Amino acid sequence: QVQLVESGGGLVQPGGSLRLSCAASGFTFSRYVMYWVRQAPGKGPEWVSDINSGGGSTYYVDSVKGRFTISRDNAKNTLYLQMNSLKPEDTAVYYCAPAPGSWGQGTQVTVSS
What stretches of the chain adopt beta strand conformation (E)? Predict the structure, then answer.
């Protein structure tokens, strides 16, 4: 049974940082491309970033390039998203998922002063 547990969200001021984690189980994590997607209130889901199975290739939506860093630890079956220089428009629920696959339950990120 695939399980994805996101954590690390919270309330942060503009310019602050957060590190999201996604603990995966129930599938062979190291074989899958993994991605982060977010959904802001009243909006559709937005792909944020993905990383290949080995961790050597990463991709980002333009709005987070230079601020967010995706990484993974295949030994720990864990995906990360380091988010720096956060902006109010980054406020959303952040989800992780394998490609293809279902999302986890999400973690709320709120950027506000």
Answer: 3-7, 10-12, 18-25, 33-39, 45-51, 58-60, 68-73, 78-83, 92-99, 107-111
* Contact of 39 with 95, CB cutoff 8 Å: yes
The per-residue pLDDT for range 4-54, each reduced to its tens digit, is 999 999 999 999 999 999 999 999 999 999 999 999 999 999 999 999 999
pLDDT on residue 109: 98
Contacts of 97 (CB under 8 A, 6+ apart): 4, 34, 35, 37, 103, 104
**Three-class SS state of 17:** coil
Q: Give the C-alpha separation, 6 to 29, whole Å.
A: 15
